[in-house]
TrEMBL record:
The active site is at C729 (glycyl thioester intermediate). It comes from Micromonas pusilla (Picoplanktonic green alga). InterPro entries: E3A/B/C-like, HECT_dom, Hect_E3_ubiquitin_ligase. Residues 431-761 form the HECT domain. PROSITE patterns: HECT (PS50237). GO terms for molecular function: ubiquitin protein ligase activity. This is HECT-type E3 ubiquitin transferase. Its EC number is 2.3.2.26.
Length: 761
């Protein structure tokens, strides 16, 4: 503080004294033998200390010296002083900026400005962990009380009401405490996540931390989520595991309780914190900051460039997040049908006034990510059946009271040789309410009665036809083994309604619980869920192009970039001819340079995933969302949506054997059944798929695996010349009692090789 010319002697003396106090505080804070703080942080804290706006941070050196000298009281006095004061603890264990600054040297000014609040709140977790370990080793659980007092004093300062979610009027204590509350929450939760067992005191502290996190406003939530994302994997996983265990125990407790729902909000607070962890783990980092050119694109590629050296190998792992697999957030308790009523949770979500629940909130609303794919599929089925029942009942009422001939079913009659045309003619004219009726399929001239099996075969044949490259709608890539929208679609005169029909039929399959046999790249499912494609999508769909772009962006000189000889164009092959497309106006006259290469890559990615397929994909998506446009479909991640459409790719026939029921004279230990399963387990993958198709009408496993398939085997006579038969609509295999394993193998193989068709064809 510099004295002004018009200051009197007393004012000058007071300012000089203040400046001296600031200097002494600064010197103490920066001294290596005491606090060893970074100068900028020390300067800011010195001013606050001198103005009585803060408290001195924890003095780790004094604590360790006293502890090592056997001065336990002195050591714990320092602990209690700092850890019972939010202000003191907030000034403690501050990580130095050196490492962070070195790693962020390539960031833009905008990126640095966006990260500054996080830099100001950074925690030296290594030092914090060493301290926690030392206290436990030397003093046991002595720190528990100090942290308990701290966290509850903060709660009282925030003047929370019983629900923990409202604040007093005027300038709140949370606003006065600022974003530093997120720092305190993390420091206390780090201690709790490293405890071997949580007694009732520690559980109460953990519950209070969840409650404090639930009070955060949107900027606070974003700040805490960013801090969680910045944790290393080990600390992040420890915190996630602690929270999952807390949620699991509370769900089981509430499900087993005989009284009403939990009004305390304890479980809801923990689930909302689990949602922050899930968001922090999500792979789509900083989606709202993608308008920077080179920097953001390069940052987005950092995780991929090393693997891009062999880009034709395994595709991007869509099942992983920043730290943990997304499946890590599935919660055992809410996926346990014996304890958790997902139907009740769904009803509470759709109707907040629903009072039959034991829970004060809905997982569907707060944490749908906690449901595994099988539970999500059950919720979607629940929604579908409710709509089906509604349409069925309305059709019956119209028939009774108005004489209407409106069928309660969606009836589709098709011929095998004109299947797609027949479906197009019948489905395209249907109203929305008709599409939501239960589906019944009939093949003209055949005897099959559709109890589910005929519809299964219909979907198989439809998919086989429209995805045949000769049909002109989709092209198959032998390298990636996926289908993509054919570039010739425009020239073949295909109309939007045909692509819309495919979307409707896939929606009908989901709606009526049938699985299909084709493979889209994950990008299609991401686009169906409203997610924006990126460079990593290109790696799966067009790996050699992805590899080329990775090399382009890694080039360090203008000469290296010029050597690519690129312009702002893209090419595609239509009927064997190469067609050049401008990515920008007059793009073929604009060379790609080291300055504009990121703009070129962005333009190409947008063209490839948006412009090049816009009309067929938009029509396809429109058809899909006619039946699957509700909010439940957005519970699914892209890889889960693929499982919903196409089933599970993994065939566990051991699980199928364990789940199989036996009727009409057969039993698990029957000699014929033992022969049957020996034959099945010895089959090739292709033969097993054919067996599934023969017995169930589909060669794919349900989303929750073959163990969930209601498979039945019945005895069907003793004649060796008879072939096995099946009621596909009931997943029911009728197997004669063959005398030896060779005969069984021969007859079963003959049957599954000729499995298509119902009655006369």
């Amino acid at each position: 503080y510099r004295a002004a010319d018009d200051d009197d002697d007393e004012t000058r003396s007071r300012k000089a004294a203040f400046a001296g106090d600031v200097k002494r505080a600064f010197d103490a804070l920066t001294a290596k033998e005491t606090y060893d703080m970074e100068p900028n942080d020390a300067a800011a804290l010195a001013l606050k200390l001198t103005a009585d706006m803060a408290e001195w941070p924890f003095n780790a050196r004094a604590f360790y010296d006293a502890a090592n000298a056997g001065k336990d009281v002195t050591a714990m006095d320092e602990v209690f002083r700092a850890f019972r004061s939010a202000d003191a603890l907030n000034s403690s264990f501050v990580a130095r900026k050196d490492a962070a600054a070195a790693s962020s040297s390539a960031l833009t000014d905008r990126e640095r400005a966006r990260r500054k609040p996080l830099d100001d709140l950074r925690i030296d977790f290594d030092a914090l962990d060493r301290f926690y370990d030392a206290v436990r080793t030397m003093f046991g659980s002595a720190l528990d009380g100090a942290l308990y007092d701290l966290i509850h004093s903060i709660r009282e300062r925030l003047e929370l009401d019983a629900s923990g979610l409202s604040r007093s009027r005027g300038k709140t204590n949370w606003e006065r405490l600022g974003l530093s509350l997120t720092r305190l929450i993390l420091m206390v939760m780090r201690y709790l996540s490293t405890c071997d067992d949580l007694d009732h005191v520690l559980e109460d502290m953990l519950s209070c931390c969840y409650e404090l996190a639930a009070t955060l406003d949107p900027p606070g939530i974003r700040c805490l989520t960013a801090q969680l994302r910045g944790l290393d994997r080990g600390r992040f996983e420890a915190l996630a595991q602690t929270t999952q265990q807390f949620v699991t125990v509370r769900v089981y407790e509430r499900a087993s309780a005989e009284d009403g729902h939990d009004d305390g909000g304890t479980l809801e607070h923990a689930v909302r914190f689990l949602a922050m962890l899930y968001d922090a783990n999500a792979a789509s980092v900083d989606d709202d900051d993608d308008d920077d050119d080179e920097a953001d694109l390069r940052l987005g590629l950092e995780l991929e460039l090393d693997a891009a050296a062999d880009a034709t190998a395994a595709a991007w792992d869509w099942t992983r997040g920043v730290h943990l697999p997304h499946a890590y957030f599935y919660n055992d308790a809410v996926n346990d049908e014996a304890f958790f009523d997902v139907k009740d949770d769904y009803r509470r979500w759709k109707n907040p006034e629903w009072r039959a629940s034991k829970f004060a909130f809905s997982f569907c609303a707060v944490a749908p990510f906690a449901f595994d794919p099988a539970t999500k599929a059950r919720i979607l089925t629940l929604e579908s059946r409710m709509l089906m029942t509604s349409e069925f009942e309305e059709a019956m009422m119209r028939s009774v009271f108005s004489g209407s001939r409106d069928s309660p079913f969606l009836v589709v009659r098709v011929r095998r040789d004109t299947l797609v045309q027949d479906v197009l003619a019948q489905i395209s004219s249907k109203r929305e309410r008709d599409l939501r009726k239960p589906l019944k399929v009939a093949f003209v001239g055949e005897q099959g009665v559709d109890e589910g099996g005929v519809a299964k075969e219909f979907f198989q044949l439809f998919v086989r036809r429209v995805f045949d490259p000769s049909f002109g709608m989709f092209a198959h890539d032998d390298e990636t083994r996926t289908f993509w929208f054919a570039p010739e679609a425009d020239d073949l005169g295909l109309e939007d309604v045909e692509f819309e029909l495919i979307g409707i039929v896939i929606g009908l399959a989901i709606y009526n619980e049938h699985i299909l046999d084709f493979r889209f790249p994950m990008t299609i499912y991401r686009k169906l869920l409203g997610q924006t494609p990126s460079m990593r999508d290109l790696r799966e769909v067009n790996p050699w192009r992805h590899q080329g772009f990775a090399k382009l962006l890694k080039a360090r000189t203008a000469e290296e970039v010029d050597a690519f000889g690129l312009t702002f164009t893209a090419t595609r092959i239509v009927f064997g001819d190469e067609v050049v497309v401008d990515l920008i106006e007059n793009g073929r006259d604009v060379p790609v340079t080291i300055e504009n290469r990121s703009a070129y890559v962005k333009a190409y990615v947008e063209w490839f995933f948006v412009d090049a397929i816009q009309y067929p994909f938009d029509a396809f998506k429109r058809g899909f969302h006619r039946l699957c446009g509700g909010p439940v479909i957005h519970f699914f991640r892209p890889e889960e949506l693929e499982q919903l459409v196409c089933g599970c790719a993994h065939f566990d026939f051991n699980a199928l054997e364990a789940a199989t029921r036996y009727e009409d004279g057969y039993a698990k230990d029957d000699p014929t059944m033992r022969m049957f399963w020996r034959v099945v387990h010895a089959m090739t993958e292709t033969q097993k798929r054919r067996l599934l198709f023969f017995a169930t009408g589909s060669d794919r496993a349900p989303i929750d695996g073959l163990g969930a398939l209601p498979f039945v085997i019945s005895k069907n006579g003793t004649e060796d010349h008879r072939l096995p038969t099946a009621h596909t609509c009931f997943n029911h295999l009728l197997l004669p009692e063959y005398k030896d394993e060779g005969t069984l193998r021969a007859r079963l193989t003959q049957a599954i090789e000729n499995a298509e068709g119902f009655g006369l064809q």
